[in-house]
Design a protein that fits this description.
By secondary structure, this protein is an alpha/beta fold. It has seven helices and eight strands, in the order E-E-H-E-E-H-E-E-H-H-E-H-E-H-H. The strands form two sheets. The protein has a four-stranded parallel beta sheet with strand order 1-3-5-8, sandwiched between helices. It has a four-stranded mixed beta sheet with strand order 2-4-6-7. Helix 1 (36-52) runs parallel beside helix 2 (69-75). It starts with 9 loop residues before the first strand and ends with a helix.
Length: 174
């Protein structure tokens, strides 16, 4: 997508309508099979860095649960549109972990005290709460999700590609 000049913006979403991303399979993905836990962590960190530094605009279409590592994946996108019944959170603390991998993305988007409350309690948030905290850009009714995302992508696609690339680089450098 980054090398294809015909692609002007990228939308990421979950398959189906239940979840955007609910995080890693801590049992399977972190096992010794498939490269082990260190490789799984490195792959995830590389994905977040790649998405956050992507040269074209990125939009997260949050269609359901957005939890744990999924929160980091969503926050690495430039703009986030969520359906009104989407659920957000960092439940890692509930199983004896802490969301270290996504901490920088959370703190970059949310006020410190709100971020700490979110990661220390592990409580799930409504889309309205996520919007108020600055986790997401916009909340829309379920029936309008695709229309709103489509309209936004059309607006982004109509902009100057080089202007977007240089602008994003400058924004992230600040």
């Amino acid at each position: 997508a980054e090398k294809d000049d015909a692609v002007r913006a990228v939308c990421v979403t979950g398959a189906g309508e239940k979840a955007f991303c609910s995080g890693a399979d801590l049992g399977g993905a972190m096992s010794a099979e498939g490269g082990g836990k260190n490789q799984a962590f490195q792959n995830y960190a590389d994905l977040l860095k790649r998405l956050a530094g992507f040269s074209k605009p990125t939009v997260a279409r949050v269609n359901g649960y957005c939890l744990a590592g999924g929160t980091g994946f969503m926050l690495a996108c430039d703009i986030v549109i969520a359906k009104e019944d989407a659920t957000f959170g960092t439940p890692e603390v509930n199983v004896g972990l802490f969301p270290m991998m996504i901490g920088a993305l959370i703190y970059r988007n949310v006020l410190r005290k709100k971020a700490l409350e979110m990661v220390l309690t592990g409580r799930r948030l409504t889309a309205a709460e996520a919007l108020a905290m600055g986790l997401i850009t916009r909340v829309v009714p379920r029936a309008r999700l695709d229309g709103e995302v489509g309209e936004l992508l059309a607006i982004l696609a109509a902009k100057s590609p080089i202007g977007m690339k240089i602008g994003k680089e400058a924004f992230h450098a600040m």
